[in-house]
Amino acid sequence: MERLQKVIAxxxxxxxxxxxxxxxxxxxxxxxxxxxxxxxxxxxSDRIEVDNKILEKENKEYYLxxxxxxxxxxxxxxxxxxxxxxxxxxxARIYPVGRLDYDTTGALLLTNDGDFANIIMHPTSEIDxxxxxxxxxxxxxxxxxxxxxxxxxxxxxxxxxxxxxKKINKEANTCLVEITIHEGKNHQVxxxxxxxxxxxxxxxxxxxxxxxxxxxxxxxxxxxxxxEVQIIYSYKK
Length: 237
Fold this sequence. Notes:
This protein has 237 residues and is of the alpha+beta class. It has 6 helices and 17 strands. Strands 7, 8, 9, 10, 13, 14, 15, 16 and 17 form a 9-stranded mixed sheet that branches. A 4-stranded antiparallel sheet has the order 3-2-5-6. The longest helix has 9 residues, at 16-24.
């Protein structure tokens, strides 16, 4: 169930604010009844009319993208840089689930299904977000333990569910570390490593829950299967 004005806005007909104005003006009907009060929640089975025109329901779409470096995780960009939406061939009003930085690569989900997006992003779902980070310097067990027990970023304590040292390059004084988190705060992985004294040179998200990029080249994408979508909905609490 979603608020009526949100459903109208999500259809692409108008903005949420304009939808609220139309409701107050008595221009919106639900199942033949004129609605003028804000806050009514509707389901997918409800028949919605705006200015005597039936609201068309948009089919739900789900994509996994291997985001390349130098692409904005947004639906649009005021500097006219390429966005992740530009990489997907669809006319649906999809949007990215969470975000990856401009210089971060890897797994990114896109959809027009708000419930699906909320399940993925909410920490209570405990969906793994697995990153591979190239660090300047060689991380030690003490710093790894700190990441697991918890570090403060932006005055909020966060922790990694798993941290694994994958490779050491003593000559270059760098290492590769796999880190798994459940939250998705802004620049979280980079800030977590900074909190224990390391700069991230390169960052890739390898996996989100059951979705891996191992068979997707950079910039390529695929549709999710109905079974995969059902699995994510099974996490809903």
